[in-house]
Amino acid sequence: MISAPEAAPDFPVIQVRKLAKKFCTRLRTSLWYGLRDIVAEAWPWSRPRTASLREHEFWSLQDVSFELRRGEALAIVGANGAGKSTLLKLLNGLIKPDGGTIRLRGQVGALIELGVGLDPVLSGRENIFVRAALFGFSRTQVNPVFSQIEEFAGLGDAIDMPVQFYSSGMVARLAYAVAIHLRPDILLVDEVLAVGDMDFQRKCINHMLAYLAAGGSVVLVSHNPYHIQAVCQRGILLEHGRVAFAGSGLETLDRYFAQQHQLPATRGTGPTTGRPVVIEALTMTGEATPAVVAGGPLRLRVDYQAQQAYEAVGWAFYIWTNDGLTCITGGLRLEPVRLAAGQHQLCCTVPQLPLTAGQYVVKVAIFELHSQQPLALLGWEDAPVPLQVQGELTLEKSFQTMLQQLVTIPVKWGDEQLGVH
Amino acid sequence: MREIIYNSHSPLASPRAFGRAVGLDARTVLRVGRQLFVRNLIVQYRQSVLGYLWLLLPPLVLALTWTLLSKANILQGEKPAVPLPLFILTGIFLWQAFVETLNSPLQQLTSVRHTLAKVRVPHEAFVAAGMGVVVFNLLVRLAVLGAVMWWYGVGWHLTLLWVPLGLGALLALGLGIGWLVALLGLLYNDVANALTLGINLWFLVTPVVYVLPGRYAALLNLNPVTPLLLTTRNWLLSGQAAPSPGFWMVAALASFGSLLGWLAYRLAQPHLIARF
């Protein structure tokens, strides 16, 4: 780590250039490499061997570049193992890059696993001072903001209770309250809001927006589209340690979901041993055309493979918003259906699809009626199937798009003018 | 607002910047370490019935055991100039301080390993806090030792003024080795296991509970703890001002070693975290 003199005022607060980090897949080899790297640190004139991979090593991050200015929030999106947490650790200065450079201008605060560093035996009040001390703040510096921390955490009398008796949500409240009231210039947030309740999440999002408006900068790692949409103007999508896409927060989310939806192509090709029923495909079309049109019919076909016959099963499909957060509608068949052994289909038709034009996702479940236990699922633990609903370009549709309206309902408008005489 | 740059180069490639960073951190470490020390003191015995009595119980039991063994003539050798229980108790208190210092960095850093992997905090602050507890424990034991000296009617000598120097050298030696042990021990668990075994053997080849036998004096003096412990005990009990052979050399090396160990740990820190 090097401290350089103050930079120009318009200089980005975070500047990452061709960042690379490698890890080793084998623990003992990794320890041995670690020892060699430590010895190499003591001899700075030796030729750095960081550019190449040693045996059993892989690039966790490679050629990652981006910038972030004051008042901006950047979302880092990607599947598990894409390198998001490694990137945050590098930005936080916990680990060293193996290539490239990170330039940070300002004090960095990190919200990574909120409960870490809190002493379970100490009370919430005592932990506030200890945690602040860990970030380099003395008791006299904390005293003026103590009441604000206490108020934001909203723990009431529990503030004097040992932290070991706190719920995970209470721990999150306390840790978040301390971290944000120490006023860092750059805030790194790693999937930590999920543990709090809705009220706390709303509070945090509002706080982050106020913090951004006051000139702070946020780097947010999250799988929650609502948090990303609410906070981040910009985003980058990481794929196998590389930047696969960089754009606005919404564009990055769209690209991420599109990437997730490509996964069903491999569905049904894996081993099916041990699974009694496998859903191999879900096909959705219009009545006579492949396109599904708003207000038109929707034909739904589920291709399944069953190891044995089942006499009484039920099945259901559910249509969700494209971000997977809200289930809009669906169909549930509770009359017993016979599932024949081998490769077969289940079909149904929605005569008039009430959805407005746009992108949706669909999930399917087949379950035993008497136990109500699922026999096969599609889109619940794996990626759901995308549904594109088309519509004509009309004034009504542009209103629907503007308002993010999801469904249309038949309305009978009255012709008479009602009034009081 | 200063700019911080992270890259793959060794911090030693820019020695001035490295020195400045160490200097800045040293101030933070002392401040944070003090707060963590207070926390350690509170937490240490909060879930305990006997509480701070645990500071004294283990060394007292150990001293009593060795005194009984010596009185039963199981240990053959020269008798000390001061009462045997006092001689043994002093030796064990000093040895205990050395061992606690040696163990402290690895113990402290291992206990907060998970925090260090997730939160950017000065690692040295935890070690400083641990050292605070070691010094606190030592002071309590020295107060008890003072009472025992009074009980046996051992006179106060001017050499007592030199005792802090001897204790400082003993702790510096422990800390220097402790940094190295922490560096390796955070990578390999073998180090912690070997340390337990090593310390037990080390205790036996250090004149803690026996008088340095003339026949093996040259050999036992190769043990760096020997001159530091003997000199400090003499300054405490007998008033003999002249330090044991090798005292000044070991004290100088220990001071330099503790600084070097700290710098080595700083260089190793990101590589250790990457493997937590």
UniProtKB/TrEMBL annotation, chain A:
<protein>
    <submittedName>
        <fullName>ABC transporter ATP-binding protein</fullName>
    </submittedName>
</protein>
<keyword id="KW-0547">Nucleotide-binding</keyword>
<dbReference type="InterPro" id="IPR003593">
    <property type="entry name" value="AAA+_ATPase"/>
</dbReference>
<dbReference type="InterPro" id="IPR015860">
    <property type="entry name" value="ABC_transpr_TagH-like"/>
</dbReference>
<dbReference type="GO" id="GO:0140359">
    <property type="term" value="F:ABC-type transporter activity"/>
</dbReference>
<feature type="domain" description="ABC transporter">
    <location>
        <begin position="46"/>
        <end position="265"/>
    </location>
</feature>
<dbReference type="InterPro" id="IPR003439">
    <property type="entry name" value="ABC_transporter-like_ATP-bd"/>
</dbReference>
<comment type="similarity">
    <text>Belongs to the ABC transporter superfamily.</text>
</comment>
<keyword id="KW-0813">Transport</keyword>
<dbReference type="InterPro" id="IPR029439">
    <property type="entry name" value="Wzt_C"/>
</dbReference>
<keyword id="KW-0067">ATP-binding</keyword>
<dbReference type="GO" id="GO:0016887">
    <property type="term" value="F:ATP hydrolysis activity"/>
</dbReference>
<dbReference type="InterPro" id="IPR050683">
    <property type="entry name" value="Bact_Polysacc_Export_ATP-bd"/>
</dbReference>
<dbReference type="GO" id="GO:0005524">
    <property type="term" value="F:ATP binding"/>
</dbReference>
<dbReference type="Pfam" id="PF14524">
    <property type="entry name" value="Wzt_C"/>
</dbReference>
<dbReference type="InterPro" id="IPR027417">
    <property type="entry name" value="P-loop_NTPase"/>
</dbReference>
<dbReference type="Pfam" id="PF00005">
    <property type="entry name" value="ABC_tran"/>
</dbReference>
<dbReference type="GO" id="GO:0016020">
    <property type="term" value="C:membrane"/>
</dbReference>
UniProtKB/TrEMBL annotation, chain B:
<feature type="transmembrane region" description="Helical">
    <location>
        <begin position="81"/>
        <end position="104"/>
    </location>
</feature>
<comment type="similarity">
    <text>Belongs to the ABC-2 integral membrane protein family.</text>
</comment>
<protein>
    <submittedName>
        <fullName>ABC transporter permease</fullName>
    </submittedName>
</protein>
<keyword id="KW-0812">Transmembrane</keyword>
<feature type="transmembrane region" description="Helical">
    <location>
        <begin position="49"/>
        <end position="69"/>
    </location>
</feature>
<feature type="transmembrane region" description="Helical">
    <location>
        <begin position="125"/>
        <end position="153"/>
    </location>
</feature>
<dbReference type="GO" id="GO:0015920">
    <property type="term" value="P:lipopolysaccharide transport"/>
</dbReference>
<feature type="transmembrane region" description="Helical">
    <location>
        <begin position="194"/>
        <end position="212"/>
    </location>
</feature>
<dbReference type="GO" id="GO:0005886">
    <property type="term" value="C:plasma membrane"/>
</dbReference>
<feature type="transmembrane region" description="Helical">
    <location>
        <begin position="165"/>
        <end position="187"/>
    </location>
</feature>
<keyword id="KW-1133">Transmembrane helix</keyword>
<feature type="transmembrane region" description="Helical">
    <location>
        <begin position="246"/>
        <end position="265"/>
    </location>
</feature>
<keyword id="KW-0813">Transport</keyword>
<keyword id="KW-0472">Membrane</keyword>
